[in-house]
Amino acid sequence: MTEATPAKQQPRNIINVVGAAIVRNGKVLCAQRGEGKSLAGFWEFPGGKIEPHETAREAMHREIEEELLCEVEVADEVCTSSYDYDFGTVVLTSFVCHLLNGTPRLTEHHEIRWLSPDEMLTLDWAPADREAVQLICAMDFTRK
After folding, report:
1. For the chain: N or C, fewer Cβ within 10 A?
2. Other CB atoms within 10 A of residue 1 CB
């Protein structure tokens, strides 16, 4: 009798990304993913993939310039979290950021909103962002 051998598991695709909790006047910029994108309709902190030659902070600057057409100061790292989606494992490093130049404009997202921590908790967040949301909502931005 032959024993069945367990099927080999495929290695998961690891996707390293960054997200910006851009703070202004005690509120945080939240972005809703657009139709036709993975996780459409979920809310997230704007950002994107870290390129192989970049640090997380460099990627944060580039992604905000590309997605929102503005410039930010990347301040404190909030956390690094991961979530296993069907398309791979997203490893998200989130930062608190402050606007330096420009006004955020829609280019990729369906909607953007400046929200208080209480308002943020009412949104349907992408799973990878949820840990950062909880930590950011516990921060005091009223002194900034």
Report:
1. N
2. 2
d(CA 113, CA 32): 9
Inter-residue contact 114 to 22 (CB < 8 Å): no
pLDDT in tens, 116-128: 999 999 999 999 9
The residue type at 24? R
- Can you tell me which residue has the tokens 């997230």? 44
Task: Report the distance separating Cα 24 and Cα 124, nearest Å.
Answer: 22
Place of tokens 């909103």: 113
* Cα-Cα-Cα-Cα dihedral sign, residues 73, 76, 79, 80: positive
What span, in angstroms and rounded, lies between the C-alpha atoms of 37 and 41?
Answer: 9
Q: Give the tens place of pLDDT for each residue, 7-54.
A: 556 677 999 999 999 999 999 999 999 888 788 899 999 999 999 999
Q: Are strands 47-49 and 71-85 parallel, antiparallel or unpaired?
A: unpaired
